[in-house]
Amino acid sequence: MLRMIVAMGLTRWRYIGLWASILLTVASVAILLVNGLALGLDFTGGTLLEFQIQTLKEAHELNAMLTAPLAGAVELSSAGVPGEWLIKLPPQQLPWAAADLAAMLGQQLALPVELLRTTMVGPQVGAELFEQGMLAILVASLAMSAYLAFRFEWRQAIGILLSVVHDAIVALGLLSLFQIEFDLNIIAGLMAVIGYSLNDSIVISDRLRDLLSSRTQMGIHACSDVAIKATFSRTMITSGTTLFTVGALLLFGGEALYGFAFTLFVGIVVGTISSITIASTVQELLGLTPEAYRQAINTAPADAA
What we know:
The chain is of the alpha+beta class and 305 residues long. The chain has helices at 2-35, 41-44, 59-65, 98-109, 123-151, 154-177, 184-213, 220-252, 258-277, 279-285, 290-304; strands at residues 46-53, 76-78, 84-89, 113-121.
């Protein structure tokens, strides 16, 4: 009786989690439509100026020291390396030469400022980078869909796909909400999130497939709960150790890696939850039963003959 109560409790929480995930997805889409993505220099084009300024001050302290005409026109940010700072400018031309800007910064900050390099990205190159990044995500998604269609029954495959899509949308929604600069590092982070979320859902789905293929007398809800419990400790250990590493990168990786680490952190947390609340629940709503795999096993020899 206790096992039945625990099983029913897990099923109830899975469905509550499904509705919460749906609301979170809708909210993320709404945020994306309202705020959009804060596209970085990689995609919009512009000028990137790198300076060497030996100081222990933070970026907000340096920017607060700037006065007219630099105040409001430029903004210093850390390059992720001690003593190196960046100024990112939109495509329009800066009214000062790079060398003159370095001299003005040194005068206003009362610090020696050395111009290290100037990088210019044209709008056309930025647009091409954005298209290639989206194409990479599309190709990865198509390859993932083909793999799932080959390995699992179609209702399981759809549940896993929806789980992965949910994770990517929520990550994008939070990036839009906090207006974190969307650059090539975040594209890499999103692809890592897709892979991590897929792996997490496949572990549970593999265990569920084994249960459904056996001669168990349990129904689909009980089988799903048993599969989740059987893989829960593995999922928590894997997610916990990965989150510890990514959390350290998020806290100490600097501004240059902040977007990448933030995307990974959100994706791991949401992906761990969605593999339980979405992947294992949608397949039940689509009508997956133990008979689906048993019929496939029973008809396989006949088809081969």
